[in-house]
Amino acid sequence: MTTTQLISEIKKKRSFLCIGLDVDLNKIPQHLLKEEDPIFAFNKAIIDATHHLCVAYKPNTAFYEAYGLKGWKSLEKTIKYLNEKHPEIFTIADAKRGDIGNTSSMYAKAFFEDLGFDSVTVAPYMGKDSIEPFLAFENKHTIMLALTSNEGAFDFQTKLVEGKELYKQVLETSKTWKNSKNLMYVVGATKAEYFAAIRSIVPDSFLLVPGVGAQGGNLQDVCKYGMNKDVGLLINSSRGIIYASNQEDFAEAAAEKAKELQMQMEIILSLQSQ
Ligand SMILES: O=C(O)c1cc(=O)[nH]c(=O)n1[C@@H]1O[C@H](COP(=O)(O)O)[C@@H](O)[C@H]1O
């Protein structure tokens, strides 16, 4: 999917919500465990109930890898279902990969070609040659960690390197890489006070913003400093939406939570256009 298509979908749906499909068999309604593929059954019900409210889904691969081959098959079925039924929805493989060049090329093939995701998350620690193999894919997007939502973000990302915070160095350097137009960045919703500084370095890039909901990030604060002329934000919530109920009504409960966020986004978008 191109960035232009993503922007037009945001405008159409009046939403920049991304729903995280982080499926934990201990948290899903127990009646689903009777299904042949409980993870896919859960995802399908969530997607069917929420697809009109969001513009992206983000399965975090850890939640599938943890169940071995079965889990990977559930991930495959989920992305296939999304691509066939909702090709207008942006898909993110949250895998946080990145390795020496030839290995990164294989990761990129796995997520972009074999599975058919629109994007994949990567970690920048190994530098340029670990990220450029992902960027080489046309109309695919590489979402690089910039300033993460967790407490450990302060261990390295905000430390001064040659007089400048490391996350700023990462953002600036990444702009010099080949095909950097295919980059998006992860910035945690819990770090709202950093958005203005981040936008001054990457004014036009999309930011994937996790940390709203279960981690306590605030949507209004993020939008105030993080939005650009194209919106430029994908706000992710995983547990806050998909585990709204663990009973038979789980999909409707998830849709209600998604609707709450979408309505707040609609208000923010209408204020922005005034
Ligand atoms: O790359 C991510 O998506 C990510 C980066 C980050 O800084 N913080 C963060 O929480 N995430 C992911 O975003 C999701 C957040 O889930 P909830 O806290 O349940 O909404 C998880 O899949 C995390 O792995």
UniProtKB/TrEMBL annotation:
Pfam families: OMPdecase. Gene3D superfamilies: Aldolase class I (3.20.20.70). One of its GO terms (molecular function) is orotidine-5'-phosphate decarboxylase activity. Pathway: Pyrimidine metabolism; UMP biosynthesis via de novo pathway; UMP from orotate: step 2/2. The active site is at 96 (proton donor). The keyword Disulfide bond does not apply. One of its GO terms (biological process) is 'de novo' UMP biosynthetic process. Keywords: Decarboxylase, Lyase, Pyrimidine biosynthesis. InterPro entries: Aldolase_TIM, OMPdecase_type-2, OMPdeCOase_dom, RibuloseP-bd_barrel. Residues 16-254 form the Orotidine 5'-phosphate decarboxylase domain. It catalyses: orotidine 5'-phosphate + H(+) = UMP + CO2. Its EC number is 4.1.1.23. NCBIfam families: pyrF_sub2. Belongs to the OMP decarboxylase family. Type 2 subfamily. This is Orotidine 5'-phosphate decarboxylase. The gene is pyrF.
